[in-house]
Write a structure and sequence with these properties.
alpha/beta, 8-stranded mixed beta sheet, 8-stranded parallel β-barrel, 16 strands, binds pyridoxal-5'-phosphate
C-alpha cells in the first residue's frame, strides 16, 4: 500500500520489545507500570499496550478520561492543579487521585471519598539533562518539599508519587537516588499502600541492566511492604515510530539543505524546545552532507545535519527515527502545514492508517 507522506509510522513489533521489558519488571519485581499519556496517547495501539501494562497516568482531566475510555485498567489522575469541577469528574472514574500540594488535598479530599488519594512529593534530588525538565529544580512547584507536611497528610492518603527523573539511563545514579529516598522517606513508606517512582527511566534502552533494575525495585518494595508503580512514557514507546517524509526541495546556501514535507515545530516540537538533533537511522558516515530542514517559515526549523552514503534527491523518502514520544501529543497546525497521518504497522505486518487529517481539521483547530 502506497501511503502519502508525511506520516508517523508506529511499528507494533518494535513497541512489543519495550512492552516485554515492562512485563518482565512486573513478573520479576512485582512493579506495576502505568503509561504516562502526556508522552504518548495514540490510542489505536492501546489494545496491544494494555496486555503488558497496568493502566495509565495523566496530567489532566482529559488525559485521565482518555485512560479510562481507551486504555482501561487502572487510572491514576494527577494534575499540577485541579479545579473543583475537575476533581468531581475525575473522582467518578479514576482509581487514584494524586494531588500536587497539601492545599489541593485539603480542599478536595472530601469530593473524592471512594478514590485512593495520593500526594506528589519532591524528594529534592533529580536526574535531568535539561534545566527545563528538572522536576526538583530551584523553586519547583512539582510536589511537596516539606516532610512535616507529608506526615500531617498521612491520614488522608494511601500513597505517594515521586517523579524526579528525566531520561535517566544511569543505573548507578538510579540506585543511589533510590537509597536516598529509602533513607529519607522509609518511615512514611511503611505506613502507605503504594508508591509511584514516576517516569523518566530509560530501562528499555539496549544495554540497560534490566535485571539489576528489577532486583533493586523488588528489594525496595519488599523492604517497605509497598506496591510500587512506574510511570513510563518514553521508555514504553522508545524507538517504535518513524516520521516518514518526502524531500520536497534541495537548496544550497554554502551547504546543501534538504527540505522535507514535515516540520520540527509542528510535528516534533521537542527537538526545538530542547535544542536536540533528530535521529535518522539512514544517516551516519558518508561523503554527502545535508542540513535536513522542515518546511515551516521558522528559520530554525532544522532537524539537524547528517551525512549520507549517496546524494539525496528531491522526491526521495526520508525517515526521522524515534518519533513516538512527545511528538503526536504536541503536534500543531503552525503554518497550516499538512498534518502527518498516523499509520500503525500491526504485529502481523499489515499497515493500518488509523488517522488522516484534512483541511477541515485545520479549520476546526482555530
Ligand atoms: C509525573 C510524571 N510521570 C511520568 C512522566 C513520564 O516521563 P518519561 O516520558 O520520561 O518516562 C512524566 C514526564 O514528564 C511526569 O511528569
Amino acid at each position: 500500500m502506497k501511503i502519502e507522506t508525511p506520516y508517523y509510522l508506529i511499528d507494533e513489533r518494535k513497541l512489543l520489545k519495550n512492552l516485554e521489558k515492562i512485563k518482565y519488571l512486573r513478573d520479576a519485581a512485582g512493579v506495576k507500570s502505568v503509561l504516562a499519556l502526556k508522552c504518548f496517547s495514540t490510542w489505536p495501539v492501546f489494545p496491544l499496550m494494555r496486555k503488558y501494562m497496568d493502566g495509565t497516568t495523566s496530567s489532566s482531566l482529559y488525559e485521565a478520561r482518555l485512560g479510562r475510555e481507551k486504555f482501561g485498567k487502572e487510572v491514576h489522575a494527577y494534575c499540577v492543579a485541579f479545579s473543583k469541577d475537575e476533581v468531581r469528574q475525575a473522582a467518578r472514574f479514576s482509581d487514584k487521585l494524586i494531588f500536587n500540594s497539601v492545599s489541593q488535598l485539603e480542599k478536595f479530599s472530601g469530593l473524592a471519598k471512594n478514590v485512593k488519594l495520593g500526594l506528589r512529593v519532591n524528594p529534592g534530588i533529580s536526574y535531568s539533562h535539561f534545566d527545563l525538565a528538572d522536576p526538583a529544580g530551584k523553586y519547583s512547584r512539582l510536589g511537596i518539599t516539606d516532610k512535616k507536611d507529608l506526615l500531617g497528610a498521612l491520614p488522608k492518603i494511601s500513597g505517594v508519587m515521586f517523579h524526579y527523573n528525566c531520561e535517566n539511563n544511569d543505573f548507578g545514579n538510579f540506585s543511589k537516588n533510590l537509597d536516598h529516598i529509602a533513607a529519607a522517606y522509609g518511615d512514611v513508606l511503611k505506613k502507605l499502600e503504594w508508591a509511584s517512582l514516576g517516569g523518566g527511566y530509560y530501562f528499555t534502552q539496549d544495554g540497560f541492566p534490566l535485571e539489576k533494575f528489577a532486583k533493586k525495585l523488588k528489594a525496595f518494595g519488599d523492604k517497605f511492604g509497598i506496591r510500587l508503580y512506574l510511570e513510563p512514557g518514553e521508555a514504553a514507546i522508545t524507538r517504535s515510530c518513524e516520521l516518514v517524509t518526502t524531500i520536497l526541495d534541495i537548496v544550497r546556501n554554502k551547504v546543501d539543505i534538504a527540505v522535507v514535507d514535515a516540520s520540527t515545530e509542528a510535528h516534533m516540537l521537542d527537538l526545538l524546545i530542547y535544542r536536540i538533533p533528530a535521529k535518522i537511522d539512514a544517516a551516519g558516515a558518508g561523503r554527502h552532507k545535508y542540513v535536513i530542514a522542515g518546511r515551516s517559515c521558522l528559520a530554525g526549523d532544522i532537524f539537524g545535519t547528517f551525512r549520507f552514503k549517496s546524494p539525496l534527491e528531491t522526491g526521495g523518502e526520508l525517515r526521522i527515527s524515534d518519533a513516538a514520544g512527545y511528538t503526536m501529543v504536541k503536534k500543531n497546525w503552525f503554518n497550516g502545514l499538512q498534518m502527518p497521518s498516523i499509520v500503525v504497522k500491526r504485529l502481523d505486518g499489515t499497515l493500518d492508517k488509523v488517522r488522516t487529517f484534512s483541511y477541515n481539521d485545520f479549520v476546526k483547530s482555530f
